[in-house]
Design a protein that fits this description.
Helices cover 9% and strands 44% of the residues. By secondary structure, it is mostly beta strands. Strands 2, 3, 5, 6 and 7 form a five-stranded antiparallel beta sheet that branches. Strands 9-13-15-14 form a four-stranded antiparallel beta sheet, with no helix packed on it. It has a four-stranded mixed beta sheet with strand order 11-23-24-22, with helices on one face.
């Protein structure tokens, strides 16, 4: 709990900030943080105090979480905004991406592509669903791009999207209609990311993921391509030496939900999620080396009874049709903070 003491002509009003980002509803002299987790270590809190004569900003205070390894840094696009922006579900917009089209949203936060649980539903109309949300006040600006194209153009499009300020954060390849789609985040031009991509046999992918983490690289997108696992990974100039541990899971439509929960319990952030019910789903979890504390995680079904707590970021989105699983149809959002 943090408290500020201020003197001045009343009435005094307060507004708290977490890592420079306004915290909605935190408008008292005392601010009780949500339950702290390892990744909250070294977060910076401040508060502005205002009256009729002006506004002053407090000195920053640092939150220390005992025994915490260093968490992913604020603004690291490789981690899908987990711990970076205090998100809610207000002000979001849902739409579809047609095959062969591109959608660009400036100053809006994009969430991962919605994967279909069935190989049949996406090829029928060759569309992908996606959502964007308004950025909270004070959040760093973003450009989010969703793109779909013919599979024959995949390599050329990949080359054009390998710039140092762009991170591909979700991807889907569909062999039926021979097309693909991905979601990208474009950062300010002074943020430098180093791009890499490989296509490997399924049995070789887990070891490659471990090697990427040891080299301070994070796998951000994954899919199937002609029986191989194709993945995209990035290093970041703001994080040149952190060693990461990566865990990969191949899951069926029935086990993908429990697999996502397991990764979070072991301290992993889900940084890449792809596949389909026919070939199986691929989940990649990434954590700072040694950080095995469980991460707050929610599986949210907007059609169900569960509510979505504020502050969670979407790390995976899938629609599982009942005909492809032993369970009823579910629209699942994997939410992590």
């Amino acid at each position: 709990m943090f408290t500020v003491r201020a003197e001045g002509t009343p009435p005094l009003t307060y507004q708290w900030y977490w890592n420079g980002i306004l915290v909605p509803g935190a408008t008292g002299a005392t601010f009780a943080t949500p339950p702290a987790v390892s990744s909250d270590n070294q977060s910076v809190l401040s508060v502005s105090v205002s009256n009729a004569f002006g506004t002053v900003l407090s000195r920053p205070a640092t939150l220390a979480v005992a025994g915490s390894p260093r968490s992913p840094q604020l603004g690291d696009l490789r981690f899908k905004e987990v711990d970076a922006i205090p998100l809610g579900l207000q002000g979001y917009m849902y739409t579809n991406l047609l095959a062969g089209s591109t959608a660009t949203s400036r100053d809006l936060l994009g969430w991962p592509l919605e994967l279909s649980g069935s190989q049949g539903s996406v090829p029928m109309n060759a569309t992908w669903s996606f959502e964007v949300l308004r950025l909270p006040a004070g959040a760093p600006s973003r450009t989010t791009i969703y793109q779909s194209d013919s599979l024959q153009n995949f390599q050329s499009c990949l080359g054009s999207r390998s710039g140092s300020d762009t991170v591909i954060r979700s991807m889907d390849i569909q062999a039926g209609p021979a097309c693909f789609a991905w979601e990208l985040a474009q950062a300010p031009s002074n943020w430098r990311y180093s791009f890499g991509s490989q296509a490997l046999l399924p049995q070789d992918f887990p070891a490659a993921a471990i090697q990427e983490g040891a080299k301070s690289r994070v796998i951000t997108a994954v899919s199937w391509q002609e029986g191989k696992v194709i993945f995209i990974s990035y290093g970041w100039q703001g994080d040149p030496s952190t060693q990461y541990e990566a865990s990969t899971i191949y899951a069926s439509a029935d086990s993908v939900e429990s697999s996502a929960v397991l990764l979070a319990k072991e301290g992993y952030i889900i940084t890449a999620f792809g596949g389909n019910s026919a070939n199986g789903f691929i989940l990649v979890g990434t954590r700072v080396k040694g950080d095995s504390l469980p991460r707050p995680f929610q599986v949210w079904d907007p059609q169900g009874s569960a509510t979505l707590d504020r502050g969670y970021s979407c790390v995976g989105h899938i629609f599982l049709a009942g005909a492809t699983t032993s369970l009823p149809s579910r629209d699942l959002w994997f939410m992590e903070r």
